[in-house]
Amino acid sequence: MFNWLQNISDFLVFKAFGLEKQSHLAEALNFFIYDTAKILILLFVIIFLMGIVNSYFPIERVKNYLSRKKLYGLEYFIASLFGTVTPFCSCSSVPLFIGFVSGGIPLGVTFAFLVTSPLVNEVAVGLFVGLFGVKTTVIYVVSGVLHGTFSGMILQMFKLEKYLSPWVKEILANAQKEQDAFLQEKQSFKQRLPIITAEALKIIKGILPYLIAGIAVGGLMHGYIPEGFFQQYMNKDNLFAVPISTVLAVPMYSNASGILPVVQVLVAKGIPLGTAIAFMMGVVGLSLPEAMLLKKVMTWKLIAIFFGTVTVCIIISGYLFNVIF
Amino acid sequence: MEIKILGTGCPNCITLEKRVRKVVNENNIDAKITLVKDIVDIMAYKVMSTPALVINEEVKIKGRVPKVDEILNLLKL
Fold first, then answer.
1. Pick from A92, A195, A296: which is nearest to B49 by CB?
2. DSSP string covering A128-153, please?
3. B43 compared with A309, residue with greater pLDDT
4. The complex's ipTM?
């Protein structure tokens, strides 16, 4: 699909810049040009498509649906699934949380949504397709959704309502399964299109510096680190690799765009995919700024339980991936 | 006219505030602009995504940053 892009980048590096084939610099540069262009194209396509879905699926509709229907346990899965299409900005997590809770949606279902939303977002998916290919992306998305589902179910079992902040408990006590009337934008697809496109471009513009830095670092490593270099340190038999990389990843803030290109090179150089994905999920799914925001609605104890459960789930899926691949 | 901008202080909320102030200043609109940062107050408007733009206690825009001419249209009504 992207042969033409490889040709352009080959042409630029070997012909236009006159660099010698097989030299480290040429390989690094070629990788850099090809990867940047390819990823940007795929990112735009994915963000754009998800933007369309999201434009027709506003969060209020999701909330009303979840609080209206009796779903017999399926609600965790559905909440998690909805989490994939809603864009996630960490500053929205609190209003979302309150909106769900006040709509009478169980805490566990809300958590299911809260876990998947940052984990499977348009930027992460776009980068995954560009860097690892469709098959790995599908596996990542499916496991992300299951991840949210199970984390939510587990958290529901703990009966955590008592650890919410007092003002949230009050809301919870008055929660009604009311159907909030919401401002619905009555716009035709033609009217929506420019907004969606502008939004997609804005997101890409925002992550571009991190992405380029990440690909540049990846490109350098690609050219200079020998194949299979990490295999001796982080192979599948090393049982500590998954938990260590997950725990290291949690405090890192969500800049997937800078970290993913580096992770891809690490995988190419011998780090098992499961370990790498566990690391990714830790970076994207959990972050300290998010914890600070959630502090407004939860006690530290609840945040710790929430993060702890998700971390354990990430570690388990890391091992699973390593077994499968 | 009373304009409120709801947002916990993320970059998008700041952009929205700047844009609204610009529109108000450039068009000499008589308006009082308030920033609502406290989450308890924000939730009183039942928005689930920020930033949101509230004009005369009515939520007009939420979850996105509107363009300058869209803001102007809303303020002129």
1. A92
2. HHHHH-HHHHHHHHHHHHHHHHHHHH
3. A309
4. 0.73
